[in-house]
Amino acid sequence: MSSPTDLEFLLRVLLATGCGAVIGMERQYRSRTAGLRTQALVAAGACAFVLFGVQTGAEAPPLQIAAYVVSGVGFLGGGVILRQGFSVQGLNTAATLWCSAAIGCQAAGGHVIPALTMTGVVLGIHAVLRPLGRLLDKAPAAKTEAVAAYVVIARVRRKHEAHLRAQILHTLDGPDITIHGLSGRFVDDDSTANALTELRVELLIEGPAEGILDKLVTRVSLEPGVYAVNWRAADTGQYDGDDDLDDQGPLR
Question: Where is the MgtC/SapB/SrpB/YhiD N-terminal domain (predicted)?
């Protein structure tokens, strides 16, 4: 790639910025995290980095510089990915940032048609595949996963009970999990804050549940004041108040 003139540099950066801005308008219209300015800046920055390597006559070829840009945008995309319970949000936004950087690299090489084509592809994916994805989400699954009932029992110091309840509800926030009940009972007659309370969580889980339950138990066991915790498959009988936690020692 030959070193661009000042006019070519300006036109290529404007092309990258314009394409990124068009994508950003669609993102901001849908109230996404990375909107108009972010997408335009990513595309313009990617273009400028590649052009800078060409202008300075660096030993690294433009393709290698573009690879560094991809790595840098990967860190930027990681910042917009959010985890809530067992669900992950922001993957589409991160992927869009990645595509904006690719458009910037195309513009840096003076490839006008590929840059415009890629912009249209990104917009088409968001405009066309979004409603299609929603239709697929609403369609009945060809094979329905079995739903099974489970019980999680935890013993915690009374002063930490409210915090543990909130932590359990937050951790079990998933589309395949239904909390059927969350109750507690006093284990002893001690009225102090260090007395033990037994929390019983009744769950309905669709599909494989062992990983979800083991993760919950691990998370709960790390909370302050937790004395013991386990899980088991729920039986059809009534709860008799005995879940074999008396035989367990305190968590270390």
Answer: 14-134
